[in-house]
Known about the structure:
By secondary structure, the chain is mostly beta strands. It is built from no helices and four strands. The protein has one domain. Helix content is 0%, strand content 47%. It has a four-stranded mixed β-sheet, with no helix packed on it. The protein is globular, with a radius of gyration of 9 Å. The chain starts with a strand and ends with a strand.
Amino acid sequence: MQVNASVKKKCDGCEFRVRKGKLRVVCKKNPRHNQRQD
């Protein structure tokens, strides 16, 4: 899980989701792409 000020999609499998008021990128193809906005 990477924590960034600005999150971006890195591949086609990445999706934006909002959990607990924070924007996240969740990727099923490559879990290394998971990010959380801080």
